[in-house]
Design a protein that fits this description.
Layout: H1 3-9, H2 15-32, H3 34-55, H4 65-89, H5 94-98, H6 102-105, H7 112-146, H8 152-178, H9 182-208, H10 216-219, H11 222-225, E1 237-240, E2 248-251, H12 256-280
Antiparallel strand pairs: 1-2
Helix pairs in contact: 2-7, 3-4, 3-7, 4-7, 4-8, 4-9, 7-8, 8-9, 8-12
Length: about 280
């Protein structure tokens, strides 16, 4: 082997090549794992159950084109997105510490940023597949009842949902980098998205009359709101729970620009912090 050939053979791959290799093999690991097929089954089950509910709805309950997509897609897809973030991002980085796999990769000339970005892209690709499966269920059910009369706002909602998915994975990767235990990082992500955010957005904020602009799920409300005609007013919208209860709730709805900004800030901040934590954390 000549000297130029020797140098070529021993040259460290570029960051882009490293990201591509890590993404490829992480996706293959997903396809071999049980979690992928469990989430696939859950996504299919959600689609089937919703289709059954639509089919057996009471005769007095009329369903318009917009109402179908708003209820079927708008209410369920955020849950599918959060589950995808938990399944594919909850332990993406913390697993490197807990399972000791990082000890084999980090000593090699592989940049930590390449590992982080590669794993995030793999999780985003796998989660996009789940989002696509649920999209197929929505369109199939909608086509059965309303033909191919798909509102343009549904396309917008898909784009917003995809954007929200990226942000959810950013948050999941942040907690996965923050903790070395997979169970803790997954548990924190579950508690935040399935309990804390919804509690603050749906009850605490309306009770105290404060717009929850600091909650990611508030910004994600644009996914379903864009399918509502007319688009819900930004607020404040005040309602009293009966004269005897004496409880007044003030609700808000994020505008589309506001929702996109909230989602983008969550993604940028959590992705950057997650990478920073991963870069500085030592394998001990």
């Amino acid at each position: 082997m000549t000297e130029p050939e020797f140098k070529q053979a021993n040259r460290v791959p570029s960051s882009m090549v490293q990201v591509g290799i890590i993404s490829k093999y992480t996706v293959l690991d997903y396809f071999r794992s049980r979690r992928f097929y469990v989430l696939f089954a859950i996504t299919v089950l959600i689609g089937v159950l919703l289709s059954v509910l639509v089919h057996f709805r009471p005769e007095t309950f009329t369903l318009s084109n917009f109402a179908f997509y708003s209820n079927y897609w708008g209410r369920a897809v955020p849950f599918v997105i959060v589950l995808s973030g938990i399944f594919f991002g909850g332990d993406a980085i913390s697993g490197e510490f807990q399972n000791k796999t990082g000890y084999f990769g980090i000593p090699n000339p592989i940049r930590r940023s390449s590992i982080y970005v590669g794993k995030w892209l793999a999780a985003f690709a796998a989660s996009t597949l789940m989002l696509g499966i649920f999209t197929v269920f929505t369109l199939s059910t909608g086509a059965y009842y309303f033909g191919l009369n798909v509102p343009f706002e549904f396309v917008e909602s898909i784009l917003f949902a995809w954007f929200y998915l990226a942000s959810v994975l950013g948050v999941a990767f942040f907690f996965s980098s923050l903790f070395k235990s997979s169970s803790i990082s997954i548990l924190v992500t579950v508690i935040l998205f399935l309990f804390v955010f919804d509690l603050v957005n749906g009850f605490v904020a309306p009770l105290v009359g404060v717009e929850p602009w600091f909650i990611i799920t508030y910004g994600a409300g644009i996914v379903g709101n864009v399918l509502t005609q007319p688009y819900p007013a930004h607020g404040p919208i005040t309602a009293t729970l009966g004269p005897r209860a004496g409880i007044t709730l003030t609700t808000f709805n994020a505008t589309i620009p506001e929702g996109l900004v909230i989602i983008a800030i969550y993604f940028i901040v959590t992705a950057a912090l997650g990478l920073a934590f991963f870069e500085r954390k030592e394998f001990t």
